[in-house]
Specification:
This protein is 52% helix and 9% strand. By secondary structure, it is of the alpha/beta class. α3 packs parallel to α4, α8 packs across α10 and α9 packs across α10. It starts with 12 loop residues before the first strand and ends in a 12-residue tail after the last helix. 42% of the residues are buried.
Length: 231
């Protein structure tokens, strides 16, 4: 079961892809279909069509471009989350503007650059945020009057101080954008143990999802150690 109480996906992860550029849709499909556990069930050329096809196909995950005609990806994500909460959303960040990223997160979307990892995380009921996007969110918050960077770092470090050493290790890897399976391999744990640690980390930090935990990790200056081959 995921932290929000939904059952883990059994069988292939069913995915809808939405982008107004046919070549980009083809590229996303090509990436996704390299994973035998993922099946692309529908493609949409705009946000309005994406919402309609999500209603028709009930995919586990909708992969949405940010800018599309008629209804953009952010509004489509909000509508999907409002009316079809069983479908998770992965927001492509091709354009990369900070305001779009923040709006997308506010709509309940994920923002991965690591597409396969993001789709799998969202299908499992988690939110996913790449480390690059998390770092930019932190920088944006520090520059918008939401509090000086030093103050935000101090508050984040106080929250992190509530964690056990092992939970801190897990949080560092969350901030690095790793999946539960990748964290398990790095820390030499079974994946079920990592899932339990992730749930504990979210509860202790008083955040709802992995994306918010990643932001806390970056605010606190916690970074994962490099992979063994890079040491």
């Amino acid at each position: 079961m995921s932290r929000d109480g939904t059952a883990a996906v059994a069988g292939p992860i069913r995915v809808l892809v939405a982008d107004d550029e046919p070549m980009i849709r083809a590229g996303v499909r090509a990436v996704l279909t390299t994973d035998p556990g993922i099946e692309v069930v529908a493609e949409a050329a705009d946000g309005h069509e994406a919402v309609e096809l999500v209603r028709a196909h009930r995919p586990h995950v909708a992969v949405l471009d940010v800018r599309m005609p008629r209804t953009d990806g952010i509004d489509a994500a909000a509508e999907i989350r409002r009316t079809l909460p069983g479908t998770g959303v992965v927001m492509l960040t091709t354009f990369g503007e900070d305001d779009y990223i923040l709006r997308a997160l506010g709509a309940g979307a994920a923002g991965p650059e690591e597409l396969l990892a993001g789709v799998r995380a969202v299908a499992d009921g988690a939110a996913y945020l790449s480390p690059k996007v998390a770092a930019r969110v932190v920088a944006h918050l520090a520059s918008t009057g939401a509090g000086a960077l030093a103050e935000r770092r101090g508050a984040a470090r106080e929250r992190v101080a509530r964690l056990t050493p092992r939970e801190r290790d897990v949080l560092a890897h969350l901030g690095g954008g790793l999946s539960n399976g990748q964290i398990a391999r790095r820390l030499h744990l079974v994946e079920g143990t990592v899932k339990a640690h992730v749930s504990s980390v979210l509860a202790r930090l008083s955040v709802d999802n992995r994306a918010a935990a990643a932001v806390v990790a970056h605010e606190a200056g916690i970074l994962p150690p490099p992979p063994p081959e890079q040491r």
